[in-house]
Amino acid sequence: MTDQHDDEFQEDLGPSKSQIKREMHALQEVGKRMLDLSDEQLNSLPISDTLKAAIVESRRIRKHEARRRHLHYIGKVMRNEEDPEAIERGLDAFDSGSAEHTRRHHLAERWRDRMVAEGDSAVGEFIDYCPSADIQHLRNLARNAKRDAEKEKNTGQAKKLFRYLRECIDEVE
């Protein structure tokens, strides 16, 4: 009878202190990765203004112990106010070896190839996928890349189209 009571009591305890510390250290590591980002990359992440201000402040700190304490603060802000999974996906998009970066790269390549092959119909579909894209600029890039492909020249138009597509995809995701 006491065994059943002990089992019910164990379920109500929640995560252990060690588990909470491991999660906190993981959040601090994510915070360290964010410190190395440029302002443009930082602005593209789905983070609150509080966390963004903490990261900018942390960049100014040079003393080891003060920096360590500030990383604890960043971890606390992330634990209380942020979605760590979304932030990690955003960070992975900047890491050239990650699966997310590779996925976005291949997606942009497929859109580019379709636009070169199909023209305005593929451009229209991409605008549905990414409404913030500049349709006139995109059509111009696609037309130039298609012209290069037809003439079997390489003036870099396909690369320009790819870069623009990649920027749009990064904004959407």
- The SS-based structural class is mainly alpha
Strand content: under 5%
CATH domain class name of the largest domain: Mainly Alpha
- Fraction of residues in H or I helices: over 70%
- What is the CA-CA span between the terminal residues? 53 Å
Outline = elongated
Q: What does the radius of gyration come to?
A: 23 Å
* CATH architecture heading of the largest domain: Orthogonal Bundle
Main beta sheet: none
- Give the tally of structural domains: 2
Instruction: Give the CATH superfamily of the largest domain.
Output: PSPTO4464-like domains
Q: How is the CATH topology of the largest domain named?
A: Diphtheria Toxin Repressor, domain 2
Note poorly predicted spans.
none
Helix and strand string, N-terminal first?
A: HHHHHHHHHH
Give the overall average pLDDT: 83
Overall strand count:
0
How many DSSP helices? Answer: 10
Pfam families: DarP
Keywords: Cytoplasm, Ribosome biogenesis, RNA-binding, rRNA-binding
InterPro entries: DarP (IPR006839), DarP_sf (IPR023153)
GO molecular function: ribosome binding; rRNA binding
Which terms summarize this structure?
173 residues, mainly alpha, Diphtheria Toxin Repressor, domain 2, 2 domains, 10 helices
Structure description:
- It contains ten helices and no strands.
- With 173 residues, the protein is an all-alpha fold.
- It folds into two domains: 2-94, PSPTO4464-like domains (Diphtheria Toxin Repressor, domain 2); 99-172, Diphtheria Toxin Repressor, domain 2, CATH 1.10.60.30.
- Helix 2 (17-35) runs parallel beside helix 6.
- The model has no long low-confidence stretch (mean pLDDT 83).
- Residues 1-11 have a biased composition (Acidic residues).
- Its main location: cytoplasm.
- Keywords: Cytoplasm, Ribosome biogenesis, RNA-binding, rRNA-binding.
